Amino acid sequence: MQIARDRQLDGLRAVAVSMVLYGHFFAADGSYWGHIGVRLFFVLSGFLITRLLLEARADSSFERAVALKSFYARRALRIFPPYFAVLGFVWLTGLESSREVLAWHALYLSNFWYALQNAWTPWVLCHTWSLSIEEQFYIAWPLVMLLAPRRSIPAICLGVIAFSLAYRFYWPLTGTPSLGRDLLPPASMDALAVGALLADNRSMGVTWPRSIERSWMPLLAVSLILLWFRPTPKPPLLEWLAWMGLEVFPLLPLALLVGSCSRGIGGAFGRLFECAPMTALGRISYGVYLYHAIVLALVVQAQPFIPVNVLEQGPGRFLVAGLGTLILASISWFAFEQPLNALKRHFPYVRRTGARIALANAGKGVGVGRGTEETPAFPRVSGERAKAFQTSDIQ
After folding, report:
1. What integer pLDDT is reported at residue 309 of this predicted model?
2. What is the pTM of this model?
3. How far apart are CA 281 and CA 124, in angstroms?
């Protein structure tokens, strides 16, 4: 059975994807909430993927080659089928003349394409920039987590965060800002590395200093103020400072939110994150994010047959395109993604011999993770570590 903290992480995914839908379907002022939602996704990914890899590394039967092979196979099963189905649909329909650039998207180089063009064309695939960032992270990060000395991992995470911060200081030297400052990998590595650092601290039983935990409220307040004044015209220097603040200041509150939900929040907020609609939306959040721009493009073309205005941001677009996205993502999950996810049982992170399986299964009930009793997806462990495996590899 899924435990409370797992449901709360699904609830966080629901919050993140709702921010994206709000920014793309409803807000008329170029709302930054959609970008904050993407940043939350990055922190979640950094945390969950790093936790998964460190748990694999800590097992007594750990083998790097087996773990790497299983990681990439399981990622491919989770991510590739719906993603390439979308690219195939775009190729067949020719939406927004996207066929000419599909190679960039197929190679997960969407972020580089839009940075080089410095324009969101074709728009129907613009959201794939963040999926490209995640895929680039998935390729490189397991090698770091499984090959680097264990004691060096915190320093590596801090180094990545520092490099990302230094990257932002480069932009005042370039004159006019371009899309590259948001879309190239260093602009997002800090969020992924903050999540990874959180996972490393958790695996070592280390908590962040009280001063950091107490700073989330001031940082959140400053972030909200910057969001409030974002549409106001500003001189170039202030514009750069505001952009940098909105990228950096929300990171710690987001990381503390992820960390709190991973332990389980009590009270009204905990119940909200755990409620059935939130966890259901979080479970299909990858499909919601992947399909929402495609649905919007089709809805706009169908405006003559729709009684409300979907040509502009607002309630009509949010209702129609949002509902269409949820329906499509739900169908995709139950008919397409979930059956493919079941194949992950063939790629356990740790190789088990028959004798070790029998010993691990002695006196136990159901297997941990997504494996079977014969071939568990992850080694059996007791207590809190066993519970952590249940959602590490969902997305």
Report:
1. 96
2. 0.88
3. 22
CB-CB contact of 56 with 349 (8 Å): yes
- The upper half-sphere exposure of residue 1, i.e. CA atoms within 13 Å in the direction of its Cβ, equals 2
**Rg of the Cα atoms in the chain:** 21
Residue 250: C-alpha distances to residues 129, 190, 223, 255, 257 (Å): 21, 11, 6, 9, 11
Report yes or no on 201 lying in a domain: yes
Alpha helices (H) in the chain, listed in sequence order = 4-21, 33-58, 64-93, 102-106, 110-117, 128-147, 153-170, 180-183, 186-203, 210-214, 216-229, 236-248, 251-263, 267-274, 276-283, 285-301, 315-332, 338-341, 354-361, 383-392
Distance, in Å, from the CA atom of 259 to the CA atom of 208, rounded to the nearest integer, reads 10
Q: Is the pLDDT of residue 167 over 60?
A: yes
For residue 376, say if its preceding peptide bond is cis, omega within 30 degrees of 0: no
Nearest to 197 by CA among 166, 248, 159: 159
Nearest-angstrom CA–CA distance, 45 and 191: 9
pLDDT tens by residue, 348-390:
998 866 545 444 444 444 333 333 333 333 443 434 444 433 3
Domains contained in the chain, number: 1
Q: Which 3 state secondary structure label does DSSP give 99?
A: helix
Task: Give residue 353's pLDDT.
Answer: 61
Task: Please check whether residue 149 lies inside any domain of the structure.
Answer: yes
User: What is the Cα–Cα distance from 150 to 309, expressed in whole angstroms?
Assistant: 55
Helix axes 186-203, 128-147, angle to 10 degrees: 40
- Six token digits for residue 232: 């106001």
Query: Tell me: the pLDDT tens digits for 225-284?
Result: 998 888 888 887 788 888 889 999 999 999 999 999 999 999 999 999 999 999 999 999
Q: Which domain holds residue 16?
A: 4-352
89: tokens are: 């649909």
Q: Mean per-residue pLDDT for 182-195? A: 95
Give 102-147 pLDDT, tens digit per residue.
Answer: 999 999 999 999 999 999 999 999 999 999 999 999 999 999 999 9
> Is residue 25 domain-resident?
yes
- Tell me whether residue 298 is in a domain: yes
**287 burial via Cβ count (<10 Å: 0-12, 13-18, 19+):** buried
